[in-house]
C-alpha cells in the first residue's frame, strides 16, 4: 500500500478549496471514495470537486436518491450509499465507475464488493467544529501519481 497524503483545513471554505484544486487533476473514470462520520464534510468536499469541474448546479447529498449526476467540464456522479442494506443492490455501479465522469462515493464501505481495485480513498476527520484532517489514500498507480503530483504542485500539504 502506498503512503497516505495528509492535509488540514480550518473551515468549510478551505475544505472546498482543497477539493476544487484536486478536481484539476481528475479524469473521466476516476473513482473517489469518501469516508467520515456524519457532519465530517463529505458533501462539502464533493461541492468543492464540483466547483473545480466547473459544475454550476447546486450539489447536495443524494442520501435518498442514492445517485445524482451533475454536468460540467467532466460529469460528476455523486453517490451516497449509506441507505443500501449491506450493499445488497447493484445499481449498475460499473456504468459509473468506468463511465465518462468522476464518481464520488460517500459511505463507500457499504458497497466494497462493487468497488474497483484502483481508486482514491479520502478520509475526513473532524478535529474541531471547523478543522478537518483529510487523508488521501491512493490505491493503484494512477492515484499514486495523482497524489504525488497534487501534493507537489498545490499548497496544502502538511
TrEMBL record:
Query: What are the alphabetically sorted keywords of the record?
Result: ATP-binding, Cytoplasm, Magnesium, Metal-binding, Nucleotide-binding, tRNA processing
Q: Which InterPro entries does the record associate with it?
A: P-loop_NTPase, T6A_TsaE
Sequence intervals crossing the membrane: none
Domain of life, per UniProt, equals: Bacteria
Alphabetized GO MF terms:
ATP binding; metal ion binding
Q: Which GO terms describe its cellular component?
A: cytoplasm
Q: Name one GO biological process term.
A: tRNA threonylcarbamoyladenosine modification
Primary subcellular site in the record, as a coarse category = cytoplasm
Localization recorded for this chain is: Cytoplasm
The reply to whether tRNA processing figures as a keyword in the UniProt entry is yes
Family of the protein in this entry: Belongs to the TsaE family.
Q: Could you identify this protein by its name?
A: tRNA threonylcarbamoyladenosine biosynthesis protein TsaE
Organism in which the protein naturally occurs: Tepidibacillus decaturensis
Amino acid at each position: 500500500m502506498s503512503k497516505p497524503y495528509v492535509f488540514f483545513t480550518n473551515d468549510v471554505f478551505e475544505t472546498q478549496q482543497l477539493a476544487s484544486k484536486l478536481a484539476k487533476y481528475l479524469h473521466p473514470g476516476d473513482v473517489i471514495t469518501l469516508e467520515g462520520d456524519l457532519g465530517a464534510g463529505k458533501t462539502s468536499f464533493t461541492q468543492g470537486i464540483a466547483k473545480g469541474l466547473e459544475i454550476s448546479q447546486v450539489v447536495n447529498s443524494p442520501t435518498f436518491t442514492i445517485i445524482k449526476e451533475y454536468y460540467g467540464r467532466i460529469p460528476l456522479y455523486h453517490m451516497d450509499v449509506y441507505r443500501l442494506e449491506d450493499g445488497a443492490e447493484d445499481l449498475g455501479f460499473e456504468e459509473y465507475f468506468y463511465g465518462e465522469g468522476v464518481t464520488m462515493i460517500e459511505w463507500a464501505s457499504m458497497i466494497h464488493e462493487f468497488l474497483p481495485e484502483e481508486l482514491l480513498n479520502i478520509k475526513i476527520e473532524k478535529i474541531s467544529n471547523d478543522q478537518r484532517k483529510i487523508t488521501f489514500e491512493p490505491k493503484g498507480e494512477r492515484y499514486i501519481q495523482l497524489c504525488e503530483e497534487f501534493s507537489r504542485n498545490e499548497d496544502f500539504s502538511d
